[in-house]
Amino acid sequence: MPDYKLNINGESHTINVEETTPMLWVLRDHLQFVGTKFGCGIAQCGACTIHIEGVAVRSCQLPVSAVGEQKITTIEGLSEKGDHPVQKAWIEHDVPQCGYCQAGQIMSAASLLNSNPNPTDEDIDEAMNGNICRCGTYTRIKAAIKTAASN
Amino acid sequence: MSLIKTSYGRRSFLKTSALAGGGMVIGFSWLASCKPSPEEIANLPKEWFEINGFLKIGDNGMATIMSPNPEIGQNVKTSMPMIVAEELDIAWNNVIVEQAPLNTKIYTNQLAGGSQSIRQGWDGLRMAGATARHMLKQAAAQKWEVPLEEITTENGVIHHKKSDQSLGYGEVASLAATLEVPKEVALKELDEFSIIGTATRNVDGEKIVTGKPLFGIDQYKEGMLIAMIVHPPAFGMKLKSFDASEVKKMPGIKDVFSIKTYEDGFNKSMFDADAFPELVVVVGNSTWEVMNAKKALKTSWEPFEGYEDVFANFSGDGTFSKSVPAGAENTESHMEKMEELSTKLAKEVRKDGDPEKAFKKAAKIIERSYTAPFLAHNTMEPMNFYADVTADKAVLSGPIQTPEFMEKSVAARIGLPLEKIDLQMTRQGGGFGRRLYGHFVVEAAAISQKMKSPIKLVYTREDDMTFGNYRPAYHARYRAALDENNNIIGFHVRAGGIPESPLFANRFPAGAIDNYLAESWEIASNISVGAFRAPRSNFIAGAEQSFLDEVAEAMGKDPFDFRLELLERATTNPVGEKNDYDAKRYAGVLELVREKSNWSPESTNNTYRGVSAYFCHNSYVANVLEMVMEKETPVVKKVYCAVDCGIVVNPIAATNMVEGGTVDGIGHAMYSGLTFKDGKPIQTNFDRYRMIRHKEAPKEIEVHFVQNKEHPTGLGEPPFPPIMGSLANALYKATGQRHYNQPYITQKKVVS
């Protein structure tokens, strides 16, 4: 099995795994970055969303061999002190119910705001449509994204 | 001030330390990164004094409050400690919340189900806080040598005004911890509440948004192996054989074997329901390696013979059995069978007056049938559990709604006495009833025992969605008899399901109509079912409220007026005695939502409205849903909800629950369904199983609570059922067509 040198949250990590191993399991099983969640394994629910160079990607369908030297950001590295505007807005609106999907929701929202700092309702719907929340916190998520955008 | 005898709920005063000899591990927490940050540690007290099982006071005046019940997203981990803190009279920002260990001697009802946590916990939680406050006051009175009656408290500070002395709880905590539990304590008056009724954010909020390990599936321990299961591909099938010779050679694979989850002759509880009692298990070093081995495994399956499954009932004092027939079932034949049974006489459950006569002399009869499919719970966190079973003890940890029940099942399975089992509750990525059925807890224990290693059992989404314990498939046929003046003179509901009926014979409109008949039927099935958020109500509410809408229309009445007239009748002159609702509170939520939505039955600005109301799990919810059509697709613009759950403990979380239940209800009624071919679920993951998504959620939800001083009741389930009725009723206005069969949108758009 080959070695992979990965840049995760600004730090270098070397791991030895089989090349098809999805980043989701590299993060969760091998590096204990468990904030990135397993939901469906087929890129349909968004719970495993991470950033590759600031762009939201479903880590369950991203083989470790495809990452190369690109910068990976997980929920643990989104901000140093948990004070990214999206995280703060999530607390302000008390978004989570069970909370399981929220790391993925936050990563999708942060990626949206990276590329579009003032999204319309339609932009939000479009960017967030791949993230399922079984508890039904969608209206709060939208409100929190608007709050984050205004900050 | 109301005095209350502490003899009630006496068990609340047991200290956990006194029970430590019983094999309980106190403060066991191996979610290492959940430890407090250095800043937090700097503020922590040097010593804690346990006042009772619910709380400890630190020497610096901070309090640790135990949250007794499983947290599945209903926010009890915040709201239950709020109730203790209120009566303790301490500032909320000086409170640390911990998940209590499983110990029903102290915490009684440690089960997440039936929206009962707050309702059943309320008195005991208040008592625990009030007793501690009383003992702290007693300690201060002793120290200052002043009468207890002259002592007051305020936000964690004890005052003696006459001598102008004050001290913090922390200064007398060590003395208070040695005092006898008082026989009688004072509870606060409701208007003295400062924490209850104040928006209080989720105690785990910061950990959730920063991705800290909180959930069962996040658990990791040095040397831990990953286990996954392979279950039969279809209901009606069992394991015949498997060939693991190649798979065992795959990288990272430790072992492949089959297990029986429950041993023959085990006296199962209702929470041991399990359609696939024999499984193949793959164990290895990492999830991806085990997933690959699982895919490569060669298995063969065979049909099973029909059997009777016997379970102990909830209280454990009796049994009931379920017939599990052989065969491969199909949705198509399910639908035909349900339609057929709905036209035959069924089991009479309630009869008032003479319904036969009323229908015979009716000038007009309205008859409609409603259906809904099986549903999978689809908690976002798939089933999983951690287990470390050794020769003399077992440590288990993970997401489970029924820890007390499963501890017993595990003890029996691995042959250890109950006191050697330590079962811990993690935060749970959704419950919705799925985690009431803990076969996966027993599987984890059995696998760990066999492997002689700590293991984490993880289901894939497909394993999870195809394992059963589903919401049953339902059917309801309604008839209403109208006289020549369009008055309702008879009502008939005949409801059934596969394999359980959704009927609640004593609910509204029973009690409001003179001639009433309720019948029930069931069709046995080998597709396993279980409680799903608001069991039975989650279908019958929408069916009934759609039907009442149609009846109101036929009578030429406004849908609010019609419902309120029936409720008026049920209030002033109820029919029968066993009516399972309070007609006044029912009418109260309808009146509130009519006012808040500025109701008008006519469509304005192309906005179409539907109304619905329901009572279940002790709370009342009514709503008005506003819909527009955009490119022939219905869009829910706004939902107004009115809720009567008594005293609202935490308004921000209560509102969140109502919003979530509303979104979830629209989602399931509109989009979701599980169908079968040859016993196999056709939908196995979120590519084919439709869940509501961002775009489809209502654009706005407005929640209003009835302000009263009633005993608080739950919100996990009550907001979920009624919205399906207002959705169907608005869809009718928007499309001109009644929708009888869920999911309303099976393809891309509503047939209009």
Tally of discrete structural domains of chain A: 2
Q: How many helical stretches of chain A?
A: 5
CATH fold call of the largest domain in chain A = Ubiquitin-like (UB roll)
What is the succession of H and E elements of chain A? Answer: EEHEEEHHHH
- CATH architecture descriptor text of the largest domain in chain A: Roll
**Oligomeric assembly:** heterodimer
Per DSSP, what share of the residues of chain B sits in E-state strands of 2 or more residues? 25-35%
Note down, in words, how this protein is organized:
The complex is a heterodimer of chains A (151) and B (752). Chain A has 151 residues and is of the alpha+beta class. Chain A folds into 2 domains: 3-77, Roll (Ubiquitin-like (UB roll)); 85-150, DNA polymerase, domain 1, CATH 1.10.150.120. Helices cover 34% and strands 15% of the residues of chain A. Chain A is built from 5 helices and 5 strands, in the order ββαβββαααα. Chain A has helices at 23-30, 85-92, 102-115, 121-128, 138-150; strands at 3-8, 11-16, 49-52, 55-58, 71-73. Chain A has a 5-stranded mixed sheet, sandwiched between helices. Chain A is globular. The model of chain A has no long low-confidence stretch (mean pLDDT 97). By secondary structure, chain B is α+β, with helices and mostly antiparallel strands. Chain B has 3 domains: 2-198, Aldehyde Oxidoreductase, domain 4 (2-Layer Sandwich), CATH 3.30.365.10; 218-308 and 383-458, Aldehyde Oxidoreductase, domain 4; 342-375 and 470-735, Aldehyde oxidase/xanthine dehydrogenase, molybdopterin binding domain (Aldehyde Oxidoreductase, domain 4, 2-Layer Sandwich), CATH 3.30.365.10. Chain B contains 17 helices and 31 strands. In chain B, the strands form 9 sheets. Chain B has a 7-stranded mixed sheet. A 5-stranded mixed sheet of chain B has the order 17-25-24-23-18, with helices on both faces. The longest helix of chain B is centred in the N-terminal third of the chain and has 28 residues, at 117-144. Chain B is globular. Chain B starts with a strand and ends in a 17-residue tail after the last helix. Classes of the chains: A alpha+beta (151), B alpha+beta (752). At the A-B interface, helix 1, helix 2, helix 3, helix 4 and helix 5 of A face helix 6, helix 7 and helix 16 of B.
